[in-house]
Design goal:
The complex is a heterodimer of chains A (307) and B (321). In chain A, 71% of the residues lie in helices and 1% in strands. Chain A has 307 residues and is mostly helical. Chain A has two domains: 3-74, no CATH class; 82-302, MetI-like fold. In chain A, a hairpin with a 2-residue loop joins strand 1 and strand 2 (82-83). In chain A, helix 12 (218-234) runs antiparallel to helix 15 (271-302). A two-stranded antiparallel ribbon of chain B has the order 1-2. Chain B folds into two domains: 9-65, no CATH class; 71-317, MetI-like (MetI-like fold), CATH 1.10.3720. Classes of the chains: A mainly alpha (307), B mainly alpha (321). Chains A and B meet through helix 2, helix 5, helix 6, helix 7 and helix 9 of A and helix 2, helix 4, helix 5, helix 6 and helix 7 of B.
């Protein structure tokens, strides 16, 4: 390093330079976030418009003066004195999410515990093999899985039974190898002495699993639960495949049902209702997002992806 | 005293202990592996076999072995060319643009948030928010914004009547929707990676007279490569398996068009009149899987760490390297 550069370094006030870049980044992010928020604002605004308003004042995001209405929201909750389909769809999605979170967490934590704390022959090899199966694209199994569903369904005459369909919607995603991998990482971070000492005190493995290990990895469990919730709430391809054959509108999940509002004719007029339904169906996920977004975002930093 | 008693345990007791241990291991492993076998291993294995059969899931009595017939049909049948291969071509063309963009945009935004300007936590949340929305809602919102009539929002603003959902333009809309919907995932992973870069390395770089660009090139990039690789891998697989976006962003008249291999598999499986062709669809799934493996292998070779420093993530996927 020559003298000039030392002079340069001393002269410059690093703090000031940082501030300039902060200001630049602030304004760029302000524009980007404006663009990112805009579709939500548009959805909300349109959902409060009347059908005529959409045609007559397409320029405005929000309803014209005096055109504000909540009728798009009330229509789909109760129709003709009966519960409409939208609450049913949301209920179906909720059940799917809760059951798949429960099954995922139970089976994956059990197996991760076995890999982390139980000694048996071939443990390492089994784990490596399991991890390697992640490179097999699961699409190879899609048709066979669907065939299994259709075949067993035809034989047992259960094919249109909602419980049978939902069993097939939920189960295939629950044995997640990546989830096991994340959980094992979390379990490996627990000092083995804790488990050892509990064992020498005579605690059974199930007791150690429930009382000691699970409370220690609570944050990982929460994170996996959250990703499982959004994944299952938003999943489209597989549920759509299984639900399309039922013919019963009330059986759909909200994500599959809302597909009915896409790909419309140009100038379609049901925009307001579509937007209101979307906004309404976003409420649960939005509530979860508001309360957990910090944990979700920061959790990604500490779970799984180190470096 | 205690040590002695351990040594004195009889053989019988030892065996009893062993059986008990095995039972415990089985108890912990069984639920997962039962599920994994039934819903992953069996279907994948069955898929490999089904591709050599003519098979109808609703009428398994008609099952017949046809050898490589399904694969031959896959490469010669004109209908397959205009559906499956058309979808493959469309998806690959889209991915050439989409995959780099879906890495560069999140990286750029992550870098800006990493500088921690005022309110960066809000910016971070806003960029991540669209990822929790379902694809059908993305389709509804963008479909309404880019409505082809003059009353569509963008057309109204521009005073035009552009048919957004036709031809190449449709893919521009799909690109915009994808950026909005999925930037957040890679963004948070890369942001976390940026935060984990040791600060003293930047100081060292500055003392060596390196500017901001140098610091990014020689300090930031090498230190986030693990995460960058993970993002590349996930994005590549995700965009090869493109399904949701072209399904929800389409014109009403064009709904039969197959824009990706996943759409082909879905639509043909769903079509009761094509139930007889399940073997053929399975063969197409296998060909598609080979394409996916091919591209991920290339990705793996290109981004391979030549210094041989391996972390847990690399060990996981180094089957190809």
């Amino acid at each position: 390093m020559n003298d000039a550069s030392i002079f340069f370094l001393e002269k410059k006030k690093p703090k000031k330079r940082v501030n300039v870049s902060k200001i630049v980044s602030f304004f760029i992010l302000l524009i980007v976030c404006g663009l990112f928020v805009f579709p939500f604002v548009y959805m909300l605004g349109t959902s409060l418009k009347t059908e005529e308003d959409i045609i007559l004042h397409p320029l405005g995001i929000f309803p014209a003066k005096g055109g504000w209405t909540l009728s798009n929201y009330t229509g789909f909750i109760i129709r003709d004195g009966k519960l409409d389909n939208v609450p049913k769809w949301m209920f179906n999605s909720f059940v799917t999410c809760i059951v798949s979170i429960a099954v995922t967490l139970i089976i994956c934590t059990l197996v991760a515990y076995a890999f982390a704390f139980l000694n048996f022959r071939g443990r390492k090899m089994l784990f490596t093999t399991l991890i390697m199966t992640m490179t097999i694209p699961s699409v190879i199994g899609t048709t066979a899985q669907y065939s299994m569903y259709a075949n067993i369904g035809t034989l047992t005459k259960l094919i249109a039974n909602p419980v049978y369909i939902y069993f097939w919607i939920i189960m295939p995603g629950t044995a997640g190898v990546f989830t096991v991998y994340l959980l094992k990482n979390a379990l490996d971070a627990i000092p083995p002495e804790i488990v050892e000492s509990a064992r020498s005190d005579g605690a059974s493995n199930l007791r150690i699993y429930f009382r000691i290990v699970m409370p220690l990895i609570k944050s990982t469990l929460l994170l996996i639960g959250l990703f499982c919730f959004t994944g299952s709430w938003n999943s489209l391809l597989w549920p759509q495949l299984l639900l399309s054959g039922t013919g019963e509108q009330g059986y759909l999940t909200i994500t599959v049902a809302l597909i009915g509002y896409t790909n419309q004719v140009d100038g379609w007029s049901a925009k307001a209702v579509a937007m209101a339904t979307s906004a309404f169906s976003m409420i649960p996920i939005l509530i979860i997002f508001i309360f957990t977004q910090r944990r979700m975002i920061e959790g990604m930093a500490t779970t799984g992806v180190k470096r | 005293m205690e040590k002695k008693s351990v040594f004195e345990t009889s053989k019988r007791e030892k065996r009893k202990e062993q059986t008990k241990n095995r039972a415990v291991v089985a108890l912990f492993m069984a639920p997962f592996f039962l599920n994994f076998t039934l819903f992953f291993l069996v279907p994948v294995f069955m898929g490999l076999i089904l591709s050599f059969f003519q098979y109808n899931p609703y009428d398994s009595a008609k099952t017949a072995f046809v050898g490589f017939d399904n694969f031959v049909k896959l490469f010669t049948n004109p209908l397959i060319r205009s559906t499956f291969w058309h979808g493959m071509k469309t998806t690959l063309l889209f991915d050439v643009v989409a995959v780099p963009l879906m890495l560069l945009i999140p990286l750029g935004l992550a870098y800006l948030v990493y500088l921690e300007p005022p309110g960066y936590k809000i910016f971070r949340a806003v960029i991540y928010l669209p990822t929790v929305v379902s694809i059908s809602i993305v389709g509804i919102i963008f479909g309404a914004m880019f409505d082809g009539a003059s009353t569509g929002l963008i057309n109204a603003w521009l005073g035009t009547e552009i048919k957004w959902m036709d031809g190449t333009l449709r893919w521009v809309v799909i690109m915009l929707a994808s950026i909005w919907w999925q930037t957040g995932t890679n963004f948070v992973i890369l942001l976390a990676a940026l935060k984990n870069v040791p600060k003293h390395l930047y100081e060292a770089c500055e003392i060596d007279g390196g500017g901001r660009w140098h610091a990014f090139l020689y300090v930031t990039l090498p230190n986030i490569r693990g995460s960058l690789e993970l993002c590349t891998f996930n994005t590549l697989i995700g965009y090869l398996s493109l399904y949701g976006q072209p399904t929800v962003l389409n014109s009403y008249l064009n709904q039969g068009e197959i824009a990706s291999p996943m759409m082909f598999i879905q639509q043909w499986l769903n079509d009761f009149s094509k139930a007889n062709l399940t073997g053929l669809v399975t063969a197409s799934a296998i060909v598609f899987a080979i394409v996916v493996i091919f591209f991920t292998a290339i990705e793996k070779i290109v981004t391979k760490d030549r210094k041989g420093g391996k972390d847990v993530y690399e060990r996981r996927f180094n089957l190809f390297s």
